[in-house]
Design a protein that fits this description.
single chain, D-Maltodextrin-Binding Protein, domain 2, ten-stranded mixed β-sheet, alpha/beta, 2 domains
C-alpha cells in the first residue's frame, strides 16, 4: 500500500513538474535576454547576432541585448556562457571556430567541450574564397596546384590566426591536394588579405564579403569558393570541390544556450529563430552578405556540430597543428 502511494505521489509530482516547466516556457521571456558574441564587434558573428536579436525583440516582447566578449578564439565568451544560469536568459553565438575547432585545438577549455552547451539553431553558413596575389601565375585551382607541386614549400598562405577557419581551410587544401605551402598567421583577416594584395603573401582563404570586394576591384584573383555550391556574391567562381572532391570548409554561426537549459525554452527559441530565418526578407539580407540562411532544430544543429568536430579534428591531426 505504501509502495503504491509512493508511486502515485511520484507520478503526481512528475505531472506537476511538467506542467510548471511548460508554463515557465510559455511565459518566457519575462525579462531581458543577454546574447553573448564571443568575438569582437563588427565581424560576421556579431552581425548575425544583431540581426536575429532585433527580430527576437519584436517576436518575444523582451529585449535581446548583444554583449561582445572576445578573446582566445571564442573561449572567453563561451566560458562565461557555461557559467551562466541555464534559464534561457543568457545565450550565445557559437561558430565553427569556437564550437568545432577549439575542442581539439586547445589543451584546456573553460567549459565542457562535450556537454557544455545546448544547441538552439544554426543561423547561417558562410564560405571562404581562395584568392591569390596577382603575381601568382595561376588562373584556376588546377593551375595553382600544379605550380605548388613544381615549387614545394616556396609559397605562402595567410590567415587571421592559428586554428581559425581560414587557417584550417588552407591546411585542408594542402592535405587534399598533396602540396606544401607555408602558413603565415596574422592577428586578423584585414591585414592578411592586404598583404596578399600587396604580394607579401601568395594566397588566403578569406571570408567572402571581403574577398569578393577585393576580387571585383581586381586586386586579387578569386579561384574557388569553399562551399559545396557556387556562392551568389561570386557566381562565376567555381566551388573547390569541382577540382578537389569532397572539399568543403564553410564558416558557420548559430545560437547555443548553457547545458541544462529547459528543453521547452530551447525549442521555443529555436522555433522563433527558424521563423526569422525562413522569411524571404531575412534570407535576402543574409544572402546579400554572401551567406546562406539556415534555421534548423536543436537536434539537427547538434548533429551538425558533432560532424564538424570530427571533421576539423582530423584536419588538425593531419596537418600537425600544435595545440594552443
Amino acid at each position: 500500500m505504501k509502495l503504491r502511494t509512493g508511486i502515485r505521489h511520484a507520478s503526481i509530482a512528475a505531472v506537476i513538474g511538467l506542467a510548471s516547466s511548460s508554463a515557465y516556457a510559455d511565459a518566457y521571456p519575462v525579462k531581458t535576454v543577454t546574447v553573448i558574441v564571443p568575438f569582437a564587434a563588427g565581424g560576421n558573428t556579431d552581425t548575425f547576432a544583431r540581426l536575429v536579436a532585433e527580430e527576437l525583440d519584436k517576436r518575444l516582447g523582451q529585449r535581446f541585448i548583444v554583449e561582445n566578449k572576445p578573446g582566445a578564439g571564442g573561449n572567453i565568451g563561451l566560458g562565461e556562457l557555461s557559467r551562466a544560469k541555464p534559464d534561457g536568459y543568457t545565450i550565445s553565438m557559437g561558430t565553427v571556430s569556437s564550437n568545432a575547432i577549439n575542442p581539439t585545438l586547445y589543451k584546456t577549455l573553460p567549459y565542457d567541450k562535450d556537454r557544455g552547451f545546448a544547441p538552439v539553431s544554426l543561423i547561417a553558413t558562410l564560405p571562404n574564397v581562395l584568392v591569390v596575389s596577382p603575381e601568382i601565375k595561376a588562373n584556376t585551382v588546377q593551375e595553382l596546384v600544379e605550380l605548388l607541386k613544381r615549387e614545394p614549400g616556396k609559397h605562402t598562405f595567410a590567415s587571421s590566426g592559428v586554428g581559425t577557419s581560414q587557417h584550417l581551410a588552407g591546411e585542408l587544401f594542402a592535405t587534399k591536394s598533396d602540396v606544401k605551402i607555408t602558413h603565415v598567421p596574422y592577428k586578423g583577416s584585414s591585414q592578411a588579405i592586404l598583404d596578399v594584395v600587396a604580394g607579401h603573401v601568395d594566397m588566403v582563404f578569406d571570408n567572402i564579403p571581403t574577398a569578393a570586394q577585393q576580387a571585383k576591384a581586381g586586386k586579387v584573383r578569386a579561384l574557388a569558393v569553399t562551399s559545396a555550391e557556387t556562392a551568389p556574391l561570386l557566381p562565376d567562381v567555381p566551388p573547390m570541390a569541382k577540382v578537389i572532391p569532397g572539399f568543403e570548409a564553410t564558416s558557420w554561426h548559430g545560437l547555443v544556450a548553457p547545458a541544462g537549459t529547459p528543453k521547452e525554452i530551447v525549442d521555443k527559441l529555436s522555433k522563433k529563430v527558424q521563423e526569422i530565418l525562413h522569411e524571404p526578407a531575412m534570407k535576402a539580407k543574409i544572402e546579400g552578405m554572401g551567406a546562406t540562411a539556415v534555421g534548423n532544430t536543436p537536434e539537427e544543429f547538434a548533429k551538425f556540430i558533432d560532424v564538424e568536430k570530427v571533421k576539423w579534428a582530423k584536419v588538425i591531426a593531419d596537418a600537425k597543428v600544435p595545440q594552443q
